[in-house]
Specification:
By secondary structure, the chain is an all-alpha fold. The chain is 71% helix and 0% strand. The chain contains 40 helices and no strands. The N and C termini lie far apart (123 Å). Its main location: membrane.
Length: 795
């Protein structure tokens, strides 16, 4: 045996023990080969004496134990052969008890007992009872634990069970259950005592050793917990026996051991090894033990795994779903979680939230049609979180997001989540950052599943859920949000607006009114993202309204184009303060065009007026002014609703803006673009050839001025591109048949361009002019009225 001493290294102890073990194992094998029973027992006892050491850690001791286990299997085969050669198994059973030390004696006794049971010369229950009682002779926790694990291992295939060869009148499955439970009880006691043996200063060391044992899954799974696995494999252990005998006794041991590691592991073993059907029928018993466990036990994981098992059971066997209702599984789990949290006053928020998250997932899988159950889970979660304020623990908030995401993932329909009255109350416990995360999850669910929210009431509820993205009011001071993230979040809100839709115009108007109320209080930096899609939704609604003449209520109807235009004016007014004047400018023009289609002249004029005000007061950049003026001219050209006075006023202003542009080329292009405002083919009232020609001449004058300025400043003639552009305008109006644009004026423009010295020095201008001439030739070849007109032009 390894000599006891405190100064040697553990590795050396193991090496010395292994060497002595190997030597005795060699002599034992030689005795076995020569059929020498006496020497085989002698050397096997000496070999097993190496297991009497107290200086090895559980990890190292396990190494030595596995060597012994392999050798004992050889010895068991030898014992069996001896009985076949005439040796009495009873004498053999007594002979092994002559070993000098109790530990080797009991290992040999278990080995001989295994052979004794195989010979069936005595009832199995008597031998098993004798062995399990004799093993009480070893009270050292580590040695006793491994000894009993050996007993469990060699007896597992020799238990009297239904259909087993060891079943008989005197041997029943009850005896097998009694043996396993007794061995389990003793092993559990030894396991727990490993923490409490020795001086208090060694407690930390023992805890580390026990943790090492826990990591040795071969030991835990196949030794202490293997007893439970053996019980679960017995055919005779039906639901009645499990409910009346097995479960109560196992739980009694677990509760009484008062050790957190043992309690956690054994509760998990029960959940994993016994059938789901048994758990379902004994929920009240199993859950009743949970509040009695030590406060430090990770009951969160235990209950979560139980609910996962039951959820999977329900998913794979839909015919058992009625039994879940019959046994009131949800109520029992909900009550048990409440009692566990109440019993463990110091339970972290993470554990409580995780428990309710697991319960909600269980509920959604097993009772998807019972929204009241899901809402009850959320209500219970609120009860536990009340008084704790915002949750700042990162893992807890992540789990809370998981809990809130579960209904969205299950139903793929946020409308169902809106029916859960406690849903927004749970959401309130998230901080601002995680509210934004959850809001993004909700919006992604809507977009992914193309969910349409069709009532103002549901839209109001939805906006409450995603207020982390649409409201600035609860933002903490000094919080900096990444600009890219902010833009992505606001773009998701903008996309969401198009999923808020109702076929009923009145309901749709209520929806966009709700959106307006929330967006206008969301802070200026969000408006440039949220207002445009809201304007688009309102304009779509206008197009869906019946013609005013077809509506018996006219402008007095609850929803009319006039009311929607007033609504649009209110929301666009907020944009210049965003500041997004250019965006507001574009939206005003869009609304003006919509009012034009509805024949609403005063409204269209007001929108144009607002656009002009923004142009004058807010748009100062020269490039932005050019773009804005192009939009004004293009929109005004399409307007037919204005009377002569209003149109003249707006056109005159546009002409004035054109003349005030900073660069001469920009002025020229804007002025000749204004010529289109005086000639619309489809409207005889807007056909003024004189003013068209006046615009073209004025553009030509500005082009001349621009060329002279270039010549004076740079010493070279400027480009003739502007002249060619004006020529193209002359050709356009000439082709339309405007009397004031004559053949002579077109020929004059062509000659002017040909006389320009810079034409040949500017390849792009030369190419442009050549293309224009080719176009004219093409039009001549077309024939007809147009061809005849172009034939008159002499190039």
């Amino acid at each position: 045996m390894i000599a006891d001493g405190a100064g040697e290294d553990e590795e050396k102890w193991l090496a010395a023990g292994a060497a002595a073990f190997k030597q005795n194992a060699f002599y034992m094998q030689r005795a076995i080969d020569s059929n020498n029973l006496k020497d085989a027992l002698k050397y096997s006892a000496q070999m097993l004496s190496e297991l009497r050491t107290s200086k090895l850690s559980p990890h190292k001791y396990y190494d030595l134990y596995m060597r012994a286990f392999d050798e004992l299997r050889k010895l068991e085969i030898f014992f069996m052969e001896e009985t076949r050669r005439g040796c009495s198994v009873i004498e053999l059973y007594e002979l092994v008890q002559h070993a000098g030390n109790i530990l080797p004696r009991l290992y040999l006794l278990c080995t001989a007992g295994s052979v004794y049971i195989k010979t069936k010369e005595a009832p199995a229950k008597e031998i098993l009872k004798d062995l399990v009682e004799m093993c009480r002779g070893i009270q050292h926790p580590l040695r006793g634990l491994f000894l009993r694990s050996y007993l469990a291992q060699i007896s597992r295939d020799k238990l009297p069970d239904i259909g087993s060869e060891y079943e008989g009148d005197a041997d029943t499955v009850t005896d097998a259950v009694e043996f396993v439970l007794l061995n389990f009880t003793e092993m559990n006691k030894l396991w727990v005592r490993m923490q409490h043996q020795g001086p208090a200063r060694d407690k930390e060391k023992r805890e580390k050793e026990r943790s090492e044992l826990r990591d040795l899954r071969a030991f835990l799974t196949y030794q202490v917990g293997k007893n439970l696995h053996v019980l679960s494999q017995l055919e005779g252990v039906d639901l009645d026996m499990y409910r009346d005998t097995v479960l109560p006794r196992v739980l009694e041991q677990i509760v009484n051991c008062r050790d957190e590691i043992a309690q956690y592991y054994l509760m998990d073993c029960i959940i994993q090894v016994f059938p789901d059907e048994y758990h379902l029928q004994t929920l009240d018993v199993l859950l009743g033990a949970c509040p009695q466990l030590q406060p430090s036990v990770d009951i969160m994981t235990v209950l979560s795994r139980l609910m996962e098992r039951l959820s999977s059971y329900a998913a794979l066997n839909t015919e058992v779903l009625p039994y879940f209702l019959q046994v009131e599984a949800f109520s029992k789990l909900n009550n048990a979680i409440g009692k566990v949290i109440e019993a463990q006053e110091d339970m972290p928020i993470l554990s409580a939230v995780t428990l309710y998250s697991s319960l909600l997932k269980f509920t959604l899988h097993v009772h998807p049609d019972r929204l009241d159950y899901a809402d009850q889970v959320l209500g219970s979660c609120i009860k536990q979180l009340s008084g704790k304020g915002k949750i700042h623990d990162t893992r807890a908030t992540k789990e809370l997001v998981t809990l809130l995401s579960a209904p969205l993932e299950k139903y793929n329909d946020v409308v169902i989540a809106l029916k859960l009255t406690n849903y927004p109350l749970v959401l309130d416990y998230l901080d601002s950052e995680n509210k934004r995360v959850m809001a993004t999850v909700i919006i992604r669910s809507i977009m992914k599943n193309k969910t349409i929210i069709a009532t103002a009431e549901k839209v109001e509820a939805l906006l409450e859920l995603i207020k982390g993205l649409i409201n600035d009011l609860d933002e903490p001071q000094g919080l900096e949000v990444d600009e890219d993230d902010f833009e992505e979040e606001q773009n998701s809100v903008a996309r969401l607006i198009h999923m808020l839709y109702s076929d009923d115009p009145e309901e749709m108007f209520k929806i966009i009114s709700v959106l307006k109320n929330h967006f206008l209080t969301g802070g200026p930096k969000r408006l440039k993202f949220t207002i445009p899609p809201l304007v688009v939704s309102a304009l779509k609604l206008i197009r869906r309204l019946p013609e005013e003449g077809d509506n018996p209520f006219g402008k007095e109807a609850s929803v009319s184009a006039t009311k929607i235009f007033q609504f649009l004016n209110q929301i666009i007014e907020a944009l210049p303060s965003a500041p997004s004047p250019d965006l507001a400018f574009r939206l005003y023009l869009q609304c003006a065009e919509a009012a034009n289609k509805c024949d609403e002249e005063p409204i269209a004029y007001e929108f144009f007026t607002q656009a002009y005000i923004l142009y004058e007061e807010e748009i100062s950049d020269s490039k932005a002014q050019v773009t804005a003026l192009q939009l004004i001219i293009g929109t005004l050209q399409r307007m037919h609703v204005f009377g002569v006075e209003n149109r003249d006023t707006l056109t005159h202003k546009a002409m004035g803006y054109s003349a005030k542009l900073l660069k001469k080329p920009d002025q020229c292009r804007a002025v000749y673009a204004c010529s289109h405002l005086f000639w619309l083919e489809d409207h005889e009232t807007i056909q003024d050839g004189e003013r068209v020609l006046r615009c073209l001449k004025r553009a030509l004058k500005i082009a001349n001025s621009a060329q002279q300025m270039t010549s004076a400043a740079r010493g070279s003639t400027g480009s003739v591109t502007l002249f060619i552009e004006i020529l193209n305008k002359y050709l356009y109006f000439y082709e339309k048949g405007i009397p004031q644009v004559t053949v002579e004026s077109v020929e004059s423009m062509i000659q002017l361009i040909k006389n320009e010295e810079s034409l040949t020095s500017d390849p792009s201008a030369e190419s442009f002019f050549a293309s224009t001439l080719r176009f004219m030739e093409f039009q001549k070849q077309k024939g007809g009225v147009v061809g005849d007109r172009y034939e008159q032009i002499k190039v």
